[in-house]
Amino acid sequence: MKQLSTGQIRELLAHRHIGMASDAESFWSDFKARAQLMNQDRPVAEPLFSVSMKRLMLATACATLIALCGGLFLFSGRETPAGNMTLNVTAVHSAVLMIEDAPSQSTIVWIVDMKAGDDDGGSA
Description:
By secondary structure, the protein is an alpha+beta fold.
């Protein structure tokens, strides 16, 4: 590539005639005339959600639905516990046994009153 010196550039520019618009009105009329010669397609508006975004939203919705159905299936067969129960026994005892009876829907509480070392297994 040939490099030109500053003097050569000035000489080339001095011999070249650059037409200047006389005023703004003539410039814009010339510009609009040239712009109409060019093919100017209307811009296409981009969709709000692209195809990949729609697929991601659909996949997320499906995964959420599967997780909810799986949770309902896994936990529907289990009985809920009776809740937190507190039992205060003031008598001397060694153990408390709590049993939930499903057929009668009741809770059975056995308080074993036995002193340490007692072999007869006395229960109340």
